[in-house]
Amino acid sequence: MAEVPFIVIGGYLGAGKTTLINRILGDDHGLRVGVLVNDFGDINIDAKLIQGQDGPLISLANGCVCCRLGNELGSGIETLLNVAPTLDAVLVETSGVAYPAKIASYAKTWPGLAPGGTLVMADANRIQHLALDKFVGPLVIEQLRQADRVLVTKLEKDNDWPSVQRWINAQAPDVSIMQSHEFASQLLFEIPASNHSPVVSADVTFEAKTFTTSDSLDLDDIESWLVSLPPEIHRIKGIFYNAGDPKHRWVIQGVGRQRTISTGEAWGKSPKQTEIVVIWPTSLTPKFPDGILEDSTGLQPNRKSP
Ligand SMILES: Nc1nc2c(ncn2[C@@H]2O[C@H](COP(=O)(O)OP(=O)(O)OP(=O)(O)O)[C@@H](O)[C@H]2O)c(=O)[nH]1
Ligand SMILES: [Mg+2]
Known about the structure:
- By secondary structure, the protein is an alpha/beta fold.
- The chain has 2 domains: about 190 residues, Rossmann fold; about 90 residues, CobW-like, C-terminal domain (Hypothetical Protein Yjia, Chain: A,domain 2), CATH 3.30.1220.
- It is about 25% helix and about 25% strand.
- The protein contains 9 helices and 12 strands.
- The strands form 2 sheets. Strands 3-2-4-1-5-6-7 form a 7-stranded parallel β-sheet, sandwiched between helices. It has a 5-stranded antiparallel β-sheet with strand order 8-12-9-10-11.
- It is globular and about 50 Å long.
- The chain starts with a strand and ends in a 25-residue tail after the last strand.
- Bound molecules: guanosine-5'-triphosphate (GTP) and magnesium ion.
- The site of magnesium ion has 4 residues, from helix 1.
């Protein structure tokens, strides 16, 4: 039986993993690709943001797959291996707080899988700052060390490239590095897979809170809510039911202090509802504004849903 390459896509919260997967799936390559996506919160927002997926997509939520979800990962792999006709590749998006080598190591022993290599995404704007952070720094550096190839996202000026490369190589000597936009789907089968030891070294933990409502909300309210969230939040993501545009779901993205809301795909048959997840390192204990995320975020749901 042919073995299916098992390709792991890791990297810290918000680095660009889902964006890369969407780009790969959108390429005109004719490959049959299965996707396993692990998100840290109770709701798997990423599974809802992966678009144009004709092949199977399996969502693993409610924890980080490298520490807690071993059984679910195993049953997700089995489901994908039983898809007919056989898939050309399985992509796994790890949660942003995962150690990718532990997940990649499944392919070494799982019948039917072949190690396909580990890509680790690195946000050029944040990675060096995060690496110095006393809570998350060791995790961020270990993620880079477990990469077979680092893909750098969000590089704003071309002349920063040599120094970003030098810095990454100082953390992860000899790792291959590319700018993520240069990574095309035909390179999926050329990731130089090597045998990283599945170190889980840092003891940083993370918390997530989830907010959901099926009432529509006003854009202004959501915007001021996003602005009011404390700076200790490392990641915000979600789908928003905008009273002003009930045909489309709107997408909320927050990475560090950068927060955006944009219009997304039409709701189609999926239920209209707002679902937002916020994630932060446990030690930071952010102070949420009164009411926020405790009782429906303090937002006033627009009860006159269109
Ligand atoms: N400018 C720019 N923005 C990017 C790039 N890649 C991702 N982003 C943006 O960064 C934000 C987070 O991207 P995601 O792809 O969701 O990041 P992720 O690593 O999947 O995030 P988690 O799964 O939550 O860890 C989104 O607003 C993306 O549009 C890039 O190469 N350039
Ligand atoms: Mg993602």
